[in-house]
Amino acid sequence: MTDAQETAADSSLRTTGGAPPDDVEPAPIPLLEPRDGIPPVITDDDSLAEMIAAFAAGTGPVAVDAERASGYRYGQRAYLVQLRREGAGSALIDPIACPDLSGLGEALSGVEWVLHAATQDLPCLREIGMVPTRLFDTELAGRLAGFPRVGLGAMVESVLGFVLEKGHSAVDWSTRPLPDPWLRYAALDVELLVDLRDALEKELDRQGKLDWARQEFDAIASAPPPEPRKDPWRRTSGMHKVRRRRQLAVVRELWETRDRTAQRRDISPGKVLGDGAIVEAALAVPANVHALAALTGFGHRMGRRQLEQWQAAVDRAKALPDSELPQPGQPLTGPPPPRAWAEKDPEAAARLSAARAAVSALAETLNMPQENLITPDTVRRVCWEPPVTPDAASVAAALAGYGARGWQVEQVTPVLVAALAAKAKPKPKE
To answer: Where is this region: Disordered (predicted)?
Structure first.
């Protein structure tokens, strides 16, 4: 660490989520180079084994980050993994050249991993054999501590007083070889992550929220891999315009054709065919290639073979019997949309209104986003089907049953008990 870095890092926490600074803040310092220079990218087994041994012998938490090629490649695989640990320095690993990092994951088992927005990186890390048993999420820590901006750059600047250059965050990380400026950016992303973690831990402890944060981190680390999304084609942007079942079938056929093509070519589905074009074709249900080519998104730049591929998908949807057409909407597994509550169950609507207001006020008092205090879905479920006897024990059990952590149950139960007693107000006589 340079002298300037040590000076700023030693200040620990420049701006907290609560109390204002005692005096004028010094200007943030641009962080231009990793303290040990840009480490060479590891692309072979021997170098990987040497690096694993060094990190296993290191001390303290390990900073971990991963770069994907979202918007360029199919899926969310990692194209670069960055790590830093006291006693081992920084490392950059090419997971395309070294696709099995389970040995590294095992060497770091039991070590606390420090990630920023952990849920974004954990799926791609899991694919290459890296699964933490303990973690500290600096983004989530910032939310719980009440920071208004929780991006890594904003957090490093407000907490440690450094400016990170974020110009390469959206580049195509599948590029080979990776340019030096990109590698510098990647190394800097883990440069101060442990310093940030240490400062945030102190701030959470000061606010009495450190145990809350640890419960959240444990929940993330122990969560099973997410289930594949059912009917992912229903998330096509603009789907709200599509009403008829035959049109829904067109969306499904085009989406699935696009997905197969994108997977085969290993490119982002949006680069194969845009969501807007899928919706346009669904609304029009074109009769032939000529009609399809006239639609937005299927213009003159698209070749005849491509147009025929998309028209074939439309024709498959048109040929389906009515019994095989998708149903509008998705089967509900929970309460109906809140906008329908007033008509379906006025008392439930009154409970939800009171609960939302109470949870919002509590979140403001605790200086954290409402969704981090308790998920909106949990509040809806408890208000739609409240316990028969909505006392503290019953409400606490209901919250825990929906996955709320212990600290959330403790904080939210009292306000929900009061909200569940709310009744729909009688309509005034005309």
So the answer is: 1-37, 321-344
C-beta separation of 388 from 381 below 8 A: no
Q: Phi then psi for 162, rounded to 5 degrees?
A: -120, 150
**What are the pLDDT digits (tens) for 256-268?**
999 999 999 999 9
Place of tokens 């005692």: 22
In the chain, domain spans: 3-222, 232-324, 338-419
By C-alpha distance, which of 424, 423, 430, 381 is closest to 412?
Answer: 381
Q: Which of 120, 207, 106, 217 is nearest to 169 (CA)?
A: 120
Predicted confidence (pLDDT) at residue 78 exceeds the cutoff of 90: yes
Instruction: For domain 338-419, give the fold.
Output: DNA polymerase; domain 1 (1.10.150)
Same fold, 3-222 and 338-419: no
Classified as helix, coil or strand, 113 is strand
How far is residue 192's CA from residue 112's CA, in Å, rounded to a whole number? 15
pLDDT band of 24, cuts 50, 70, 90: low
* 163 φ/ψ angles, rounded to the nearest 5 degrees: -105, 120
* Of 23, 38, 40, the residue nearest 97 (C-alpha): 40
Tokens of 306: 């491509």
Cα–Cα dist 188/34, whole Å: 6
Per the CB < 8 A criterion, the answer to whether 347 and 336 are in contact is no
Distance CA 239, CA 276 (A): 9
Backbone φ and ψ of 314, nearest 5°: -60, -45
Report the C-alpha gap between 308 and 315 in whole angstroms. Answer: 10
Predicted pLDDT at 285? 97
Host H or E run for residue 419: helix 406-419
Classify the C-alpha dihedral 66-72-73-75 as positive or negative.
Answer: positive
Q: Which pairs with CB-CB distance under 8 Å and at least 24 residues apart come from 381-386?
A: 381/334, 381/335, 382/355, 382/416, 382/420, 383/335, 383/348, 383/351, 383/352, 383/355, 383/419, 383/420, 384/334, 384/335, 384/336, 384/341, 384/345, 384/348, 384/352, 385/335, 386/351, 386/420
* CATH architecture of the domain with residue range 232-324: Orthogonal Bundle (1.10)
Which CATH architecture group holds 3-222? 2-Layer Sandwich (3.30)
Distance CA 80, CA 68 (A): 7
Q: Which two tokens stand for residue 329?
A: 């909407």
Other residues' Cβ atoms within 10 Å of the Cβ of residue 22: 5
